[in-house]
């Protein structure tokens, strides 16, 4: 299947032929490569309290944009690594990874289980080259 055969729906990534409604086609390989290179410079979501943070996570996820999924992933990951996260945050992390890693796996022709290591290596290389 080509990149245009996959779309983002509110429930995940599917073949265009399998759905009637979708949010958008998945991002191109070039767009995702650019996003991966920019990941270290994408800001996290900062909020004064847990209620506001949840609202901001919801707003980010509802945009169905790659950069917003990166923001959610980075935000939750950092909060979890500091052991200062709310019970609801891992769910946002997993959902954002499902969407972003799903796009990357389709465009780069790899198993979704290999995407996280691929992204980490690419970000490290980008930083080393900087």
* Termini gap: 34 Å
**Secondary-structure element pattern, one letter each:** EEEHHHHH
**Number of structural domains:** 1
Q: Please identify the top-level CATH class.
A: Mainly Alpha
**Based on CA inertia axes, which overall geometry fits?**
globular
Q: What level of helicity do the residues show?
A: 55-70%
**CATH fold name:** Methane Monooxygenase Hydroxylase, Chain G, domain 1
Output the radius of gyration. 15 Å
CATH superfamily: CarD-like, C-terminal domain
Explain this structure to me?
Helices cover 57% and strands 8% of the residues. Strand 1 and strand 2 (12-15) form a beta hairpin. 24% of the residues are buried. With 130 residues, it is mostly helical. The N and C termini lie far apart (34 Å). It is globular. It has helices at 29-38, 50-62, 66-81, 89-108, 115-129; strands at 6-9, 12-15, 24-25. The model has no long low-confidence stretch (mean pLDDT 93). It has a single domain, classed as CarD-like, C-terminal domain (Methane Monooxygenase Hydroxylase, Chain G, domain 1, Up-down Bundle), CATH 1.20.58.1290. The chain has five helices and three strands.
